[in-house]
Amino acid sequence: MLNFNASHTNHHSFLLTGIPGMPEKNSWMAFPLGLLYTLTLLGNGTILSIIKMDSSLHEPMYYFLSILALTDVGLCVSTLPTMLSIFWFNAPEIPFDDCITQMFFIHVFGITESGVLVSMAFDRFVAIRDPLRYASILTSGVIGKIGVAVLARAICVVFPVPFFIKRLPFCHSNVLSHSYCLHQDIMRLACASTRVNSLYGLIVVIFTLGLDVLIILFSYILILKTVLGIASWAERLKAFNTCLSHICALLLLYIPFIGATMIHRFGKHLSPIVHTLMANVYLLLPPVLNPIIYSIKTKQIRKRIVQIFFRRQGRA
User: Fold this and answer.
1) Where are the alpha helices (DSSP H) in 130-243?
2) Which domain range does residue 146 map to?
3) Beta bridge partner(s), residue 175
4) What is the pTM of this model?
């Protein structure tokens, strides 16, 4: 039996938390959580399948959308095992190494998603600023290199984090605050100085997510300047409309992230349920809603989905 107030160092496992203070209510989350994961996998899988099958969608915008969908699937799969083990099977224990591995992939895919959104902002800028050379500038080779660079950046900045965690002794409670493993959550259980971890985590946030936000803002300033230079109001609205899906994806990622960060830093007096809710919204909401937003706002994808739906109805 695990000792919640262990006096020895180096726990061999951690205990994940479902609904804080109400473990008997965990089973209530089983169905909605399963539905969310099903929608995530189904939605992003549909986007990927449609883009692959329809040659008219083999354009830079849709290639970037494919990368975003793959990232969302990766983020979903990273959190899925422990979420299901808690809410479906009432098995909150996770081995130390498995926890570190999950932490690594969650942070890698989170930073990758931010980098993909930066790439999509650049895509929108090129499409609006120089539409005639759009396809020749953003070739499939260039997009592939951008995707590799975004993933490599995420892996490189997160790679030291597991080693920083492994060097720490753990002699306090082995109960984590969430239903998955995060760096800041594991770090708080250490019984040694975590200054290096905190400093490195802050540097990573500033030079990845913080820098990404500045680049996106700068891109949209240039986009706005370009759009305002268009004489026709109809053309202006059309240009802005091509950015709406991307703007929604940005808000879905950065607003919950900023909210979760602020609550973690300054909301220690708040109920643990609030912390858990914000952390879950940050990780679960973008993968679920991104494919829905792009399906609704992108005419070509929406048309293709309707065609597939009615074709299947006709066969039935």
Assistant:
1) 134-137, 140-158, 160-166, 183-187, 195-205, 211-228, 233-241
2) 13-315
3) 15
4) 0.90
